[in-house]
Specification:
alpha+beta; 6 strands; Outer membrane efflux proteins (OEP); four-stranded antiparallel β-sheet; 11 helices; two-stranded parallel ribbon
Length: 496
């Protein structure tokens, strides 16, 4: 009997370890592409004779570093990113969500092992004399002590528990890449906010330059009015022009203050504790060689794509869980203990007791509940697969969009520089001629407005090249895979 029982247990254990119903997940292969864009996308951008106007080259053989922000060669930016990574609460929250997901995987793995519970129940009671004495003696008042150990085990015959662990591991993997996405988003937002700080300060400086030019023109027109060379309408027109230029400053100042509030929030601070660092466009070096990597590796490097693949894995595991729930469920329970009126004699003589029981249960009729749950799991997998494909397409679109934007930004800057220089020459000539009374005040106003527009356009074009370079590094995945220890931490989580 013992040999037969042992053989049955070994056979059941071998059967339990040998199969797991449901599909075995395989991550979709990467798209077989060798370029992010069409032939219209050049290998490098045009250049301009202005700070930040150098040509940028798209280098496909070079991988993106994890500290890509250092390519801007700004110690202030480096310091901000370092402080943000240490203190930003969103990143801390994402890391704790990952910890929770990993702990849930470990908790589910506990079902692979038997559960053991111990209990001790002392009692003191008196039975009614109307009934038979509860003990083997005629005593009606007695103490009773019961100690018991219960062992329960649910063999994973069809792999339902394994598939549940697999599903939870998929969710943990998705959360791991959400942490990476939060890290990339945080660092990108910090650098983008620094670029915006520099852009706004440059626009404010440009508008103040225009205010100075228009103010000088107003002084000239007033002097001419005093001499009777111009009419009062000329003075009024110049005053209106000055007021219009000054009107552009408050909105820019508001944006600058709000951007400072954003920087403080990214650093995990309150607005009153904004960082001391300020930025200007000349302090940020435009990276010339942009490591765009190999397009086929993008699905390995984008955290959102990896998270979408992990969601597919989790959905695949849930199909196996649903299938296993429709098959017979096996349980084994055992108990051993002792009962006695004396604490010291619970396991003496005939006081011990034990039991072993097995159970097999199979649903016969459930109104289709388990079947429809399986179909719902299959539909969820198809949904996750569609979302994965959409995420992959969006990832390649993001990179292509930014590459074309960088190409357009360089051309826009080149045109803006030429327009600004031409407008400046026109304004200088118009000012000299206005002093001589050779042109009307309308020509002066037109020249001032043209210079203002081209100056702002040039500043915005410079800022756009920096901002779109930041966007490119984000679209490429942020280089998280090259961060020291990232691969080791990933392997350790996979083992768990």
């Amino acid at each position: 009997m013992r040999r037969a029982g042992a053989a049955a247990v070994l056979t059941l254990a071998a059967f339990a370890a040998g199969c797991a119903v449901g599909p075995n997940f395989r991550r979709p292969s990467a798209p077989a592409v060798d370029s992010y864009g069409r032939p219209s996308l050049a290998a490098s951008t045009v250049s301009s004779d202005v700070p930040g106007g150098q040509a940028q080259r798209f280098v496909g053989e070079r991988d993106l570093t994890h500290d890509w922000w250092t390519l801007f060669q700004s110690p202030a930016v480096n310091a901000l990113v370092e402080r943000a990574v240490r203190a930003n609460p969103t990143l801390v929250g994402a890391e704790q969500a990952l910890r929770q997901a990993v702990m849930l995987v470990s908790a589910q793995r506990g079902l692979f092992y038997p559960s053991v519970a111990a209990s001790f129940s002392p009692s003191y009671a008196r039975a009614s004399a109307t009934l038979s004495p509860p003990l083997s003696t005629p005593q009606l008042t007695y103490s009773l002590f019961t100690a018991q150990v219960t062992v329960g085990f649910t063999p994973d015959v069809f792999g339902g528990t394994r598939r549940q662990v697999e599903a939870l591991r998929g969710l943990a993997e998705a959360q791991r890449f959400q942490v990476e996405a939060a890290y990339v988003t945080l660092t990108t937002n910090v650098v983008a906010a620094a670029v915006q700080d520099a852009a706004l300060r440059a626009q404010i400086a440009a508008n103040r330059e225009i205010v100075g030019i228009v103010t000088q023109s107003l002084v000239l027109v007033r002097r001419q009015f005093e001499l009777g060379a111009v009419a009062g309408i000329d003075v009024s027109a110049q005053e209106v022009a000055l007021a219009q230029v000054e009107l552009t400053l408050p909105p820019l100042q508001k944006q600058l203050e709000q951007n400072r509030n954003l920087l403080a929030a990214l650093l995990g601070r309150l607005p009153a504790d904004a960082p001391e660092e300020t930025f200007d466009l000349t302090s940020l070096t435009l990276p010339e060689d942009l490591p765009v990597g190999v397009p086929s590796k993008l699905v390995e490097q984008r955290p959102d794509v990896r998270a979408a693949a992990a969601q597919m894995h989790a959905a695949s595991g849930q199909i196996g869980v649903a299938v296993a729930n429709r098959l017979p469920q096996f349980t084994i329970t055992g108990a051993y203990g002792g009962t006695s009126t004396s604490l010291a004699r619970m396991f003496a003589n005939g006081n011990p007791f034990w039991s072993i029981a097995g159970n097999v249960a199979q649903s016969i009729f459930d109104g289709g509940t388990l079947l429809f749950r399986q179909r719902a799991a299959e539909a969820a997998f198809e949904q996750a697969a569609a979302q994965y494909r959409s995420t992959v397409i969006t990832a390649f679109q993001n990179v292509a969009d930014v590459l074309y934007a960088l190409q357009s930004d360089a051309e826009s800057l080149k045109a803006a520089v030429a327009a600004e220089r031409a407008a400046r020459r026109t304004l200088d000539i118009t000012l000299r001629q206005r002093e001589l009374g050779a042109v009307s005040y309308l020509a002066l106003l037109s020249a001032q407005q043209a210079y203002q527009q081209t100056l702002i356009a040039r500043v915005q074009a410079q800022a756009s090249r920096l901002a779109d370079t930041v966007a490119l590094f984000q679209a490429l995945g942020g280089g998280w895979w090259n961060r020291p220890g990232a691969a080791q931490r990933a392997a350790e989580r996979d083992e768990r």
